[in-house]
């Protein structure tokens, strides 16, 4: 039992860390390039932490998360804390260089795998647990951040990924048993950490356990009770806060409450307050009530949130106001967003605005709503305009959707389609292609920034992008690829680009959110009904096609991915929003077809990402997601070839849905999983074209011809070569030009070798 702790009232579970103007991105990338020294990087990091903590303190927060800063990823940080990095990086002497090698690889070392953090667009690095992995506490980072915070007078609450979540997210390597079987081996390191934190003067520590809102493994509630029973039995320790978020912990909540932990954080945006109020064991706990949405950008309905808090007053021992999860997933501040109209601006809250909301709610809980009447009035007035704003209700779109029938989501018989398409396209066996983007060079980005600042005009910009397209077409012809792409130079991002052209979306000026490492995205905001005022891609694709006799793929992003990578309105179902986007994409495919495109790719890399965390909710999601994709792709004739592309995930659970998309050709990430996905596709009865990625594009490594030929030979064993395509794992936008030329040259050469043996 901790001998001395006080409950707190006002907090947040975590914060963004990339910097309000992406300072950390620039510093880390500068360090990698040798432009920034380690000491300068450390100074930038310390400054960002100090600014974040100070802001929270100024908002009256009486418990402030620390150790939520990271140079790359908090799961990787936890692996470092447990000394559980793979042996292949162990020889790298400098700790920072070792860390970055584990994160992104180098010429000699492949990095850890990267995958999605629950149902978000944030990616974490997957810890590898082998039979010989030994866990040893390395508390240096966490203690250093605590010391920095204490020196600044910050009431620091260190945050770590808890043992259950760490192990359920890790993967077994080299024949090891499932990582979760190592729980008894990992706990001593956590025990030792608790002891260090007492020495450091820490009052509360937060263990993040979002795995408790999933069905990742059987028996999670029982495991939680056993593990936190043991952790809370440690005699010398700070008070323990276990944070569940991204959903409802279900019976894990009661299980945690039966242990000796002092606090439990619950997500009351995703979860159900009545279920929390019904747990009697919470009567002696601090309940950290996540009533302000940590991962979406809508302004909080303060009346509703205060009502939720009031529901808990009778059942919780004490109550703190918080966000539902870390604000890592939202931009820093609305302040730079000067281009928004007043209505829209009034509906939004980014991280800074959320801190104000948390603080207002905590004070209203203490002193009564009247004590903060102005804030409540402002919230009410702003949200009232959402009900009446005509942009949220477009009758034309709504009646069009209401009239959709099964015929609108169904194409002709697949094998007939493929025959007609082949008659039109006349492709060789094992057609070679790429996924869409070519390197987004800094020249391209600088041109776009110059257009934005008015330094060049639209015509000059279009000229530059056309020159890029011409280069990319010429390059592909030279390398000898069969199906070409235009390279996507004109796109800042595969989702934002479309959102900027669709009514119902608004893009932000500076709303950067970390996607992985130093890579950021600016998720657009889907606030209204979606309308496509005009064709979005046809001119670029037609131009590219005019330069070559080979087919150029039309290139679109699918409705599920546009939805997944946007901040989405919360006043209607996701399915309704997906279908509205699907209609816009459908109209675009029809326009592309009319302009002469024979192949159109509709990317759905986020299909897996929105999969609900609870098994019971999965079938309904997959049903509407597949239907939205099919709505977007069923408007074209049978001899137009529809491709789709999927990446960044474990496909096992969605393999049936991938087959149900009924794309003519599916390119799918496969290199890192050694083509295993092909057997799964066969088992799901998938009989259309498939392009398993033959090399990993997330690493600067150039694959040699023999290696690609080997991947292809493996693929041919699983798939009839008549259906097989050859392509990389994903788009090439993050790669350098030289790597791309070398890799694709080898890809074409390997294909020629394998074709000769058919
Ligand atoms: N939304 C989304 N989510 C996704 C993916 C994706 O492609 N999009 N892919 C996966 C994640 N992979 C990703 C891969 C790359 C980047 C990426 O490269 N991001 C870029 C920003 C891309 C962008 O928006 N670029 C803009 C703005 C570029 C910019 O920073 N411009 C400078 C000025 C130009 C310069 O000096 O370079 C500025 O505004 O200050 C553009 O090209 O116009 C970055 O972090 O650097 C992000 C995610 C899964 N989730
Ligand atoms: C994250 S999937 C990327 C697909 C897109 N067409 C590209 O090549 O960049
Ligand atoms: Zn991809």
From TrEMBL:
List, for all copies, the residue spans of the domain called Cobalamin-independent methionine synthase MetE N-terminal.
Answer: 10-313
Q: Which purpose does this protein serve, as stated in its record?
A: Catalyzes the transfer of a methyl group from 5-methyltetrahydrofolate to homocysteine resulting in methionine formation.
Involved pathway(s):
Amino-acid biosynthesis; L-methionine biosynthesis via de novo pathway; L-methionine from L-homocysteine (MetE route): step 1/1
CDD domains listed in its UniProt record = CIMS_C_terminal_like (cd03311), CIMS_N_terminal_like (cd03312)
* GO MF assignments: 5-methyltetrahydropteroyltriglutamate-homocysteine S-methyltransferase activity; zinc ion binding
Q: Provide the reaction this enzyme catalyses.
A: 5-methyltetrahydropteroyltri-L-glutamate + L-homocysteine = tetrahydropteroyltri-L-glutamate + L-methionine
EC numbers listed for it are: 2.1.1.14
Could you tell me which Pfam families the record lists for this protein?
Meth_synt_1, Meth_synt_2
Keywords in alphabetical order, please: Amino-acid biosynthesis, Metal-binding, Methionine biosynthesis, Methyltransferase, Repeat, Transferase, Zinc
The note describing how and how many cofactors are bound reads:
Binds 1 zinc ion per subunit. Binds 2 Zn(2+) ions per subunit.
**What cofactor(s) does the depicted protein rely on?**
Zn(2+)
Which family is this sequence assigned to? Belongs to the vitamin-B12 independent methionine synthase family.
What region holds the Cobalamin-independent methionine synthase MetE C-terminal/archaeal domain?
430-752
Mind telling me which InterPro entries this protein's record contains?
Answer: Cbl-indep_Met_Synth_N (IPR013215), Cobalamin-indep_Met_synthase (IPR006276), Met_Synth_C/arc (IPR002629), UROD/MetE-like_sf (IPR038071)
Question: What does the entry list as the binding residues for Zn(2+)?
Answer: 645, 647, 669, 730
- Active site at which residues? 698
- The signal peptide annotation in the UniProt record is none
- Top-level EC class as recorded in UniProt: transferase
Q: Which organism is it from?
A: Gordonia amarae NBRC 15530
Q: Which residues bind L-methionine?
A: 435-437, 488, 603
- Could you say which residues bind 5-methyltetrahydropteroyltri-L-glutamate here? 22-25, 116, 121, 519-520, 565, 609
What protein name is recorded for this chain?
Answer: 5-methyltetrahydropteroyltriglutamate--homocysteine methyltransferase
């Amino acid at each position: 039992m901790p001998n001395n702790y006080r409950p707190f009232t006002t907090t947040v579970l975590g914060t963004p860390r990339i910097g309000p103007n992406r300072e950390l991105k620039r510093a880390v990338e500068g360090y990698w390039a040798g432009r920034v020294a380690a000491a300068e990087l450390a100074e930038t990091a310390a400054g960002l932490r100090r600014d974040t903590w100070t802001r929270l303190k100024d908002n009256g927060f009486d418990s402030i998360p620390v150790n939520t800063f990271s140079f790359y990823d908090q799961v990787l940080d936890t692996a470092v804390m447990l000394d559980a990095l793979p042996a292949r990086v162990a020889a790298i002497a400098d700790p920072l260089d070792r860390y970055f090698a584990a994160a992104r690889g180098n010429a000699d070392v492949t990095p850890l795998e990267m995958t999605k953090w629950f149902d978000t667009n944030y990616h974490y690095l997957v810890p590898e647990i082998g039979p010989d992995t030994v866990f040893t506490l390395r508390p240096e980072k966490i203690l250093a951040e605590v010391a920095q915070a204490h020196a600044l007078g910050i009431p620091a609450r260190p945050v770590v990924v808890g043992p259950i979540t760490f192990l359920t997210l890790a993967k077994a390597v080299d024949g090891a048993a499932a990582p979760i079987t190592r729980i008894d081996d990992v706990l001593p390191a956590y025990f030792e950490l608790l002891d260090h934190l007492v020495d450091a003067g820490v009052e509360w520590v937060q263990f993040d356990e979002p795995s408790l809102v999933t069905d990742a493994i059987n028996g999670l509630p029982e495991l939680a009770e056993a593990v936190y029973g043991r952790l809370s039995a440690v005699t010398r320790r700070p008070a323990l806060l276990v944070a569940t978020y991204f959903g409802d912990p279900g019976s894990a909540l009661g299980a945690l409450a039966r242990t000796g932990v002092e606090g439990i954080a619950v997500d009351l945006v995703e979860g159900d307050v009545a279920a929390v109020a019904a747990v009697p064991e919470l009567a002696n706990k601090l309940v950290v009530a996540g009533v302000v949405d940590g991962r979406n950008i809508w302004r909080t309905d303060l009346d509703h949130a205060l009502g939720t808090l009031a529901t808990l007053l009778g059942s919780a021992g004490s109550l703190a106001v918080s966000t539902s999860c870390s604000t890592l997933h939202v931009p820093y501040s609305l302040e730079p967003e000067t281009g928004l109209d007043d209505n829209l601006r009034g509906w939004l809250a980014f991280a800074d605005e959320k801190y104000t909301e948390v603080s207002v709610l905590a004070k209203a809980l203490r002193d009564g709503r009247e004590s903060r009447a102005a804030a409540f009035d402002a919230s009410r007035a702003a949200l009232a305009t959402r009900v009446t704003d005509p942009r949220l209700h477009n009758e034309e779109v709504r009646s069009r959707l209401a009239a959709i029938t099964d015929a609108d989501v169904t194409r002709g018989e697949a094998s007939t389609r493929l025959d007609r398409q082949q008659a039109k396209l006349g492709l060789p066996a094992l057609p070679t292609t790429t996924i869409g983007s070519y390197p987004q060079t800094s020249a391209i980005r600088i041109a776009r920034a110059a257009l934005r600042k008015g330094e060049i005009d639209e015509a000059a910009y279009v000229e530059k992008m056309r020159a890029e397209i011409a280069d990319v077409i010429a390059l592909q012809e030279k390398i000898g690829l069969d199906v070409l792409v235009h390279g996507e130079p004109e796109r800042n991002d595969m989702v934002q680009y479309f959102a900027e052209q669709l009514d119902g979306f608004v893009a932000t000026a500076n709303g950067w959110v970390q996607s992985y490492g130093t890579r950021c995205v600016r998720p657009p905001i889907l606030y209204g009904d979606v309308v496509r005022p005009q064709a979005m891609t046809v001119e670029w694709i037609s131009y590219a096609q005019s330069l070559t006799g080979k087919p150029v793929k039309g290139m679109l992003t699918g409705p599920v991915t546009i939805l997944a990578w946007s901040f989405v309105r919360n006043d209607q179902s996701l399915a309704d929003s997906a279908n509205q986007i699907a209609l816009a994409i459908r109209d675009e495919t029809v326009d592309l077809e009319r302009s002469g495109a024979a192949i159109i790719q509709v990317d759905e890399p986020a299909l897996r990402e929105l999969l609900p965390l609870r098994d019971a909710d999965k079938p309904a999601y997959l049903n509407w997601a597949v239907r939205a994709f099919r709505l977007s792709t069923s408007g074209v004739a049978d001899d137009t070839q529809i491709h789709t592309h999927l990446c960044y995930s474990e496909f096992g659970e969605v393999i049936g849905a991938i087959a149900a998309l009924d794309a003519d050709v599916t390119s799918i990430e496969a290199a890192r999983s050694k083509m295993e996905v092909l057997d799964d596709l066969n088992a799901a009865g998938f009989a259309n074209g498939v392009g398993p990625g033959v090399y990993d594009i997330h690493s600067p490594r150039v694959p040699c011809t023999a290696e690609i030929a080997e991947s292809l030979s493996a693929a041919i064993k699983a798939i009839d070569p008549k259906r097989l395509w050859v392509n990389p794992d994903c788009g090439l936008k993050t790669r350098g030009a030289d790597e791309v030329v070398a890799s694709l040259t080898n890809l074409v050469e390997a294909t020629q070798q394998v074709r000769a043996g058919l």
